[in-house]
Amino acid sequence: MQFAPHHLAALSHVLRLGSFEAAAFALSVTPSAISQRIKTLEDQTGTALVLRGPPSTGTEAGLRIAKHAEDIGLLEAQLTRELSLDVGQNTARLKLAVNADSLATWFIKAMAAVEGVLFDLVIDDQDHSAEWLRRGEVSAAITAHDKPVTGCDAYPLGEQQYVATASPSYMRRWFSNGVTAKAISCAPCLVFDAKDALQRRWLEANIAPHLSPPTHFLPSSQGFVEAAVAGFGWGMNPLQLVTPLIDQGRLQPLVEQTELAVPLTWQVSRVMAPSLADVTRSVLNAAKCNLK
């Protein structure tokens, strides 16, 4: 089955921008033209592709076809480079799964070194980001798993170092007699979201197993750091983000020399690997300079 490029473009823009009107504006056509193109695709595939919003979102089939359109764009961009053709205004779009702490510490440097690509990032925990690859919804991902997802190539990146930190005032209030199992069971803890297991892993390795302190959920890497500085709770922060604050005395480790190392891996779809060679090279270079 072959899909018309302008039909694929309509679907991609609707799912990315969230409405038929926004897609029409971006493609310089009318909303009715977008609607007709989507209907033609749905008739061609025999299934619904778009869940009309707001916002408009994709069905499972719609997301797969939109990913197919993205892959075509990346392959065409590769061919354009190889033949030294004029790129014009056609810029390839790349959807990736990245964990929030990599984005906050080093991954932006990797993206900035790549030309001719528009990035579409999905933020997910490094222990779960491989699922996006398994579902075929992204072309590459940063994961905590070194075993390649089926159909993918895996490149070790190094280790992201985490340190359990809190403000001096928080330490005085909750741990005046030391960081004990009893004390930490009562002290408020910061957790990124329900997938975040770093705090639990640190507790099991350094304090005691099966502890369940009161928890604030705070899905922001920078907010995590600011909350710790404000005495809101303790949490596992990337060492790169908090080293200056530790040096300034605004944060301190709960227990010295108990850093938690999280190995990271860059996994990329093998089919798309040649088209993503520049991205992979940039990611590996940035990781080499920023991870341990």
Architecture overview:
This is LysR family transcriptional regulator ArgP. It comes from Parasedimentitalea maritima. Belongs to the LysR transcriptional regulatory family. 36% of the residues are buried. The chain starts with a helix and ends with a helix. Helix 5 links the parallel strand 3 and strand 4. Helix 1 crosses helix 3, helix 1 packs across helix 4 and helix 2 crosses helix 3. The chain has 292 residues and is an alpha/beta fold. It is elongated. Strands 3, 4, 5, 6, 9, 10 and 11 form a 7-stranded mixed beta sheet that branches. A two-stranded antiparallel sheet has the order 1-2.
SSE layout:
Layout: H1 5-17, H2 20-27, H3 31-45, E1 50-51, E2 57-58, H4 60-82, E3 92-98, H5 100-112, E4 117-123, H6 130-134, E5 140-143, E6 152-166, H7 168-174, H8 181-184, E7 189-191, H9 198-206, E8 215-217, H10 221-229, E9 235-238, H11 239-247, E10 252-253, E11 260-269, H12 277-290
Parallel strand pairs: 3-4, 3-5, 7-8
Antiparallel strand pairs: 1-2, 5-11, 6-9, 6-10, 6-11
